[in-house]
Design goal:
single chain, 5-stranded mixed β-sheet, diguanylate cyclase activity, diguanylate cyclase, transmembrane helix, Alpha-Beta Plaits, 5 strands, cell membrane, alpha+beta, about 5% strand
């Protein structure tokens, strides 16, 4: 029923005679087939044929004629669909091997075969010339496939939905409006030769809105061309009858060349965008890997230095405190001697996992500082907050209960030094690191498995 309504509506439009230039329905039919498994094709084709036949009969065609023409039209749809790959995603479909050749074959072979058959039917039933009947059928179907099939395939893709999201909508509408304005000038003005403007406009749409955007633009441009030309406007509107090429064929050739030139450009731009995206992803992965410690998987010293510089600058600007906690595994050399380096690596991973897991705030930053030493950067944290966090970490490591005969408690423990300050312009961030590091060594000299606060940060030692 949908096909009957659409077919009837197309035939009853104000520029219905323009459908001899471009017939859009078969391109939609091919797209539907490409999106469905071939086992569903017979039922779909029967539905399409019945709907289109009813629509044509309601428009005045005889049932006898439609019984002859519907199988011919369906043969065109089937042949063209068989030449094209199954559609899953737009990117995959456009990257199929020889897609341009297959697309070109679908535009030529299906409409040509059906055009020959239709020409025979029209010649026998209406005594219309073979060439005239072929021209009325095949070129308009081929152009319709070229215009509507890419759009129909794009309609259900994320790329098409992205074009009309609020954040992208203004750009999409502006670019499409520019393309339609150019089309109006090209096909509405006959006094000046403006045909050269169309391809740059379409290529601009492709470069800014990608394949889905250009599919919308192509349909709009084609409808503008058909409407203005059928109304006697533009370079094709007033066509001398003594020329060997008719008006319809001339505009079909012009639009066809524009679209066939745009399709490979779309594929090339799509591949370029894909490679650029892959390069960005690769660079991001490399940057991420460069900022992670290979053994423990948590951020490394380089990452800490970068974050330290950022948070120090922010603390200077906002005049907020910045805390730093330095953590060292007690008697780690003895642990390696007693249990082996493999066990030492596992111990480092376990400690790093606990430290990383205890960090709750998104802007806090824990990292492996080097060897068996770790660091925790605490923005917006004073010395009491840093001490509180350090004590939580110390107890969490003890709770791991990793056997260590070289420690007094019999398990792996850590010594921690912490400091905090509100830096001023001109202060050196290394001063905070030196205070926290000195506090760490005070904790180690005082018996290990404890937390010390740097003396210059606060004049007490715990």
């Amino acid at each position: 029923m949908i096909y009957a309504i659409v077919d009837l509506a197309l035939n009853r439009l104000a520029f219905a005679s323009g459908w001899t230039i471009l017939w859009p329905l078969n391109g939609v039919s091919i797209a539907i087939l490409l999106m469905r498994p071939r086992s569903d094709w017979p039922a779909i084709l029967i539905g399409i044929g019945a709907g289109a036949g009813i629509g044509e009969c309601m428009d005045g065609n005889s049932i006898r004629m439609e019984l002859l023409l519907r199988p011919i039209s369906l043969s065109e749809v089937t042949i063209s669909a068989l030449l094209l790959p199954h559609f899953s995603t737009l990117g995959d479909w456009l990257r199929k091997p020889h897609i341009f050749k297959r697309f070109l074959g679908a535009l030529v072979l299906g409409p040509s075969i059906s055009g020959v058959l239709a020409a025979i039917v029209f010649h026998v039933s209406a005594h219309q010339g073979y060439l005239s009947a072929f021209d009325d059928w095949a070129p308009s179907d081929a152009l319709g496939i070229a215009v509507t099939m890419p759009l129909a395939l794009s309609l259900r893709t994320p790329e098409m939905r992205d074009l009309f999201r609020p954040v992208q909508l203004l750009k999409t509408v502006s670019v499409l409006a520019l393309a339609f304005l150019v089309a109006g000038l090209v096909f509405g003005v006959s006094r000046y030769p403006l045909l050269f403007l169309l391809y740059p406009a379409l290529f601009l749409v492709e470069s800014l809105l990608a394949f889905s955007g250009s599919a919308v633009a192509v349909l709009g441009v084609a409808l503008i061309a058909v409407y203005l030309t059928d109304g006697g406007r533009g370079p094709f509107g007033v066509w001398p009858k003594d020329l060997p090429v008719s008006r319809d064929v001339a505009i079909q050739i012009y639009l066809g060349f524009q679209l066939l030139a745009l399709f490979p450009a779309s594929i090339l731009l799509l591949e370029r965008r894909r490679m650029a995206a892959e390069l960005r992803d690769t660079n991001e992965q490399l940057m991420m890997l460069a900022s992670l410690d290979g053994l423990t998987g948590i951020p490394n010293r380089r990452s800490l230095d970068e974050r330290f510089a950022q948070e120090w600058g922010r603390a200077v600007r906002l005049q907020t405190p910045l805390g730093l906690v330095m953590i060292d595994i007690d008697h780690f050399k003895q642990f390696n001697d007693l249990y082996g380096h493999h066990a030492g690596d596992e111990c480092l991973r376990a400690v790093a996992s606990v430290l990383y897991g205890e960090v709750r705030r998104t802007h806090d930053h824990v990292a492996r500082f080097g060897g068996e030493e770790f660091a925790l950067l605490l923005p917006h944290t004073d010395v009491d907050g840093a001490f509180h966090m350090a004590e939580i970490l110390r107890q969490a490591i003890v709770s791991l209960a990793i056997d260590h005969r070289g420690c007094a408690n019999g398990v792996v423990t850590v010594s921690i030094g912490c400091a905090a300050m509100t830096p001023k312009l001109g202060d050196n961030r290394l001063s905070l690191l030196q205070v926290a590091d000195a506090a760490l060594y005070d904790a180690k000299r005082s018996g290990r498995n404890r937390v010390h606060i740097g003396e210059t940060a606060r004049q007490i030692v715990r």
